[in-house]
Design brief:
The protein is built from no helices and 28 strands. It is an all-beta fold and 294 residues long. The chain has one domain: YVTN repeat-like/Quinoprotein amine dehydrogenase (Methylamine Dehydrogenase, Chain H). It is globular and about 45 Å long.
């Protein structure tokens, strides 16, 4: 079994809610603070800088954009935000009630995002031109979205218990999961060319190939509430267990290890590969955790 080392770095107060994070092209980690309405930047080993938005905007997922800036969803304010590496913020309003959540850069140079409250996938150019594509399922609650290796975007359909695929022309394909009420949330492109996702209600990690073949891998603790997943520099996938205060690692062969976080009740949410090639996870209690293999 691989041994890991975990360091926690406090970045905000306990009520600020670090939620998701990503690596920027400037060599820093960028993260959202969902409860305090802030975007944070931290170079590994340095103190964080926080950029204030509307305190009630609810920034959630953040992703590096094709223009070198960071793009994020404002779940409660129904907006897409853009922040440059110098801290300049631009916000793009969306239709009221759409509740954007996941966001990712697409192969077409645009940002693609999910609208949890409207059963739509949105596309926003870097100049702010918006296009929306309806899903063929009602009440799907599309959550995290990621670019696949096939030139399309793949997303978790939390309440529809399915994985969706949207081509850049807006064509949507729905792949139902074998496990009922699995509630997939996080999804990422894996090192094996497949998409890997977490089933928060079923306590499983899932894998779907580009042609739609699905495998599911039960976690040792089925009540762990896996929330987010990312590819690591070690050729494996790393995920958070929000309900069990752990981070986990799964190989592309389905071998699973889980590791307790040092601080009890830290509520790990987002997880990403950092600019230092370590795994970083956002702890809702106010810190970022750095995870390395020994």
């Amino acid at each position: 079994m691989s041994q890991i080392h975990i360091e926690e770095h406090v970045v905000a107060g306990p009520d600020s809610g670090p939620y998701a994070l990503t690596s920027g092209l400037d060599g820093a980690l960028w993260f959202t603070l969902v409860h305090s309405g802030q975007i944070g930047r931290m170079e590994p080993g340095a103190q964080p800088t926080l950029h204030q938005l509307d305190a009630k905007s609810g920034p959630t997922i953040i992703a590096a954009g094709p223009d070198g800036a960071l793009w994020f969803t404002e779940y409660q304010a129904h907006r897409i935000g853009r922040i440059t590496t110098k801290g300049a913020v631009t916000e793009f309003p969306l239709p009221e009630g759409c509740a954007p959540f996941g966001i990712a850069a697409g192969p077409d140079g645009a940002l693609w995002f999910t609208e949890t409250g409207a059963d739509r996938i949105g596309r926003l150019t870097v100049k702010g031109q918006l296009t929306e594509f309806p899903l063929p399922v009602s009440g799907a609650f599309p959550s995290v979205i990621t670019a696949g290796g096939d030139g399309a975007l793949w997303f978790a359909m939390n309440q529809a218990t399915a994985i969706g695929r949207i081509a850049v022309d807006g064509t949507v394909t729905v792949h139902p999961l074998p496990t009922e009420a699995a509630a997939p949330v996080g999804i990422t492109a894996g090192p094996d060319g497949a998409l890997w996702f977490v089933e928060i209600a079923a306590g499983q990690i899932g894998r779907i190939t580009l042609d739609g073949k699905i495998e599911e891998f039960p976690l040792p603790d089925r009540s762990a509430r896996p929330h987010a997943i990312t590819s690591g520099a070690d050729g494996a996938l790393w995920f958070t267990e929000w309900g069990a205060n752990r981070v986990g690692r799964i190989t592309t062969r389905g071998e699973i290890q889980v590791h307790d976080l040092p601080t009890p009740g830290s509520e790990p949410h987002g997880i990403a590969l950092g600019p230092d090639h370590a795994i970083w996870t956002a702890l809702e209690t106010g810190a970022l955790a750095r995870v390395t293999l020994r």
